Amino acid sequence: MVRKITSVVFVLLVLTASAYAHGGKIIGQITETHNGEPIPYCTVQLEGTKHGTVADSTGRFTIDYVPARSYTLIASAVGFETQKIEVTVTEVEPVHLAVSLEHARVDAGQIVVTGTRTPRYVKDVPVFTEVVSKASIEDKSAANIFEALDGEAGVKVENQCQGCNFTILRMQGLGADHTQVLLDGQPIYSGLAGVFGLQQMSTADVDQIEIVKGAGSALYGSNAVAGAINIISSIPRKTEGKVGIELGEHGTNRYSLTASARKDKLGLFLFAQQSEQDELDETGDANAPGGVDNPDGWIDRVRASSKNAGFNLFLEDVFASDQVVIRGRLMDETRSGGWLTNNLFENPFAAGTERIITNRFTGQVEYQLWLPSGTEINANVSFTGHKRDATNDTFLSDYEEAYGETPPVELLRPYVAEEDLLIGNVNLVQPIGNKHRLLIGVQLSHNELDESGMYLDLDTQEPYRSTSTKHANELGAFVQDEFKLTNRLEVVAGLRFDYHRSEDEFRGSGDVLTQGLDPLEYEESTFNPRFSLKYSVTDALVLRGSAGSGFRVPYGFSEDLHLCSGSPRVYKGGSLLPEKSFSYSFTADYTRPDYTASLNLYRTDLTDAIAFSDADPSVADLGYTYQWENIDNAYSMGVEFNGSISVTDQLVLGARFELFEGKYDNPRGDWLETPYEEMSRNIARYPQTSGGLKADYTTGEWNLVADADYKGTMYIDLLEPADPADAKIHETESFVIFSAKVSRTLFDRYKLYLGMKNITDYTQEEKYIDDAAFLYAPVYGRLVYGGIQVSL
């Protein structure tokens, strides 16, 4: 029966697509302005549509099946200024174009999709969008997404655990659970991935990373409270292969292979990367005899090995004016941390040890269809399967405290979790005249999470295996209009409805909760609007304003739950309100061929902020250990500046700076009636000032990139010191991390490079191993690396 239904759907799809197999054609060639030489493998896109292609090795391109009307064609290539050309397409005869591009002294932008879900030139998109380009990722020698985002304005990535080095990101002061991470526009970065995923995801497959700040729930649903980060996969532009080997101190090595092929309407990109790092101990506890500057045997950097491999397949004009994209990615990682003394950390069940094994598969199938009327239909099905096997010593230490002896071997079991996330998304884009572009979409998601781990019953001290089964269903429907009032003024207005329903079930073993707890059901719906405005004062100066709301509902796994052993019983009662936000921003963006500058002012107000805490007595009586609760209202606000200038044809300088303030309405509960009561109102772990400088110098075959990353003072809690009386809120010192990289390209095929991170060998001035989360700066110093990249 399923096979028959599939066959019928396939036939209808072919017939529908074939019926629309007509339209106009655009033919052209792209050359350099100063000498007329062809520019190979340029990207050509019709703005606001999915119609586009890649030029061949002679700069020639063809775009078929283009609905008859007027468009803005955008031609872009690395190292050249982006060119925009107005074209009118008819079905009578092809449009012939001769496009010439000037060499760019400053990178002024790319095609982006995150701000509006439609392809737009970054300078023209009404929603301010920042881009981490492929070139920027290579300048940093960033092996993973964590390293690629480090140092970006308004974004802070950090290590939050001394034992396992799990990392998170913060955007404009708000935590990781307030930012929606997208893979090619789809929210398949699951809860389990949110703890170690930034380090686990390689950059071998990344074309660029787009950052949109401010509440984005009107387009992307739950968790887009602070904004969205969209990781764009590589597109096969030409036939080539690259092999890279990078070797660094302390076993910090990376091996990568990428291959792409493009032939007519078929494109394939393959990638594989293995990253390794040895365990490292360079600092100590502030209370130890040697102080912070002497190793104490406790790991500062975990031993880790991760493997990524996958593909991106593009099929164009399969039936008519359409495209099929299939993506797949496999990831496998093992990391170990704990005491290095006698290699104790290699025993996953030893005291102080953490070992995490992660396996993840991500797949996407996307179909795009363009109709003669200009209508575009986009359907996407995405899936993530995630498995984790993890150990830490929480159960071991609890058992030894209760019984005065080591537990039997059969009780030493890892925390095991499996999460499956399935998302379906359908969008329709409909131009209305030359002034409006209407977007309508529906998104469905289903998430299942199974967990198990060992615990001690709080009353009887009896060991038992705790299990949980959780699932959530979400429905989102959204509409958006991009309305061009004049040639200089454009408005984007959108509204999204979201419905969330989840159910959590918890069960024990032996004599502890074998019957299980009553399932926790949670149901909520919300509307979120967004309004953006762009006004081009001149061709160079663009002003943007944006306002919108966001929301989040905690579900499944988060970085908070990572701090618990086993499968924690977490109460999420029906009285828990969704955390909501309202944010607004103003941006001024100035772009010239030899310099760019942007100024962004923002504020986000949080209502009913949600936190994770120990269960209240009444909740504990029900059998729960922890609970989600609404704690307070809060706000974050600040000013960001970004700029770059081409001093000469060889030298480009960049600068970034941010001022930040964030506070809760009231002091936090942990610090009431202490000297830190008023200080606790500050949003922690985000610097009040931050910034950086970058210099990029190129002469002939040589390139030098140097960067200084500044972090000002921030507030960080010391909640679990060896002596509880030493608990405090610490105001950190300011610091600067210097990095540099020099490279040389030989015969247009071989690239040799040598780099150094944390040149001054800086480490944080205070460290306490009893509180694993007391981290705010590097805890190990300088790292020298070098490598070679061969293009085939």
What does this entry look like structurally?
The protein is mostly beta strands and 792 residues long. The chain has 8 helices and 40 strands. The strands form 7 sheets. The protein has a 22-stranded antiparallel β-barrel. A 4-stranded antiparallel β-sheet has the order 3-2-5-6, with no helix packed on it. A 4-stranded mixed β-sheet has the order 10-14-15-13. Strand 23 and strand 24 form a beta hairpin. The protein is globular, with a radius of gyration of 27 Å. The two termini are 48 Å apart.
List the helices and strands and how they pair.
Elements: H1 2-19, E1 24-32, E2 43-46, E3 52-54, E4 60-66, E5 70-76, E6 83-88, E7 95-101, E8 111-112, E9 120-121, E10 130-133, H2 134-139, H3 145-149, E11 155-159, E12 167-171, E13 179-183, H4 193-200, E14 206-213, H5 217-220, E15 227-233, E16 240-248, E17 253-263, E18 266-277, E19 303-316, E20 322-337, E21 354-370, E22 376-391, H6 394-403, E23 415-432, E24 436-456, E25 463-484, E26 489-507, E27 520-536, E28 541-552, H7 559-562, E29 570-571, E30 579-592, E31 595-614, H8 617-620, E32 626-646, E33 651-664, E34 689-699, E35 702-711, E36 715-718, E37 728-731, E38 735-746, E39 750-757, E40 783-791
Parallel strand pairs: 1-7, 13-15, 29-32
Antiparallel strand pairs: 1-4, 2-3, 2-5, 5-6, 8-9, 10-14, 11-12, 14-15, 16-17, 16-40, 17-18, 18-19, 19-20, 20-21, 21-22, 22-23, 23-24, 24-25, 25-26, 26-27, 27-28, 28-30, 30-31, 31-32, 32-33, 33-34, 34-35, 35-38, 36-37, 38-39, 39-40
Offer a quick outline of the entry.
The chain is mainly beta. 7% of the residues lie in helices and 52% in strands. It is built from 8 helices and 40 strands.
